[in-house]
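Give me structure tokens for this 90-residue protein.
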Amino acid sequence: MQNKDRLTGKESHRTRTRRHSTDVGKRVRLTHRQQQVLALVRIGLHRRDIADRLHVTPGTVRSHVHAILKKLLGEIASKRADDEKLHLKD
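Here you go.
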């Protein structure tokens, strides 16, 4: 389902952002619990609210968020290194 602006027929900013976020998740392997935490972070819940929903402590949520960021930053660094290798070949 695509959300397009009625006047311009162009894809909405919200849809583009959502698709980009989903693409990142496909490249980075997250555990099931990390996926749950990420989904709740994406809708704007705070650490305590996420902890209440998942029946864990806020510290556990913090650990999951830390692991997610570590994986995402590792993916970004890896992609950047690959891009630099391509530029060096030119």
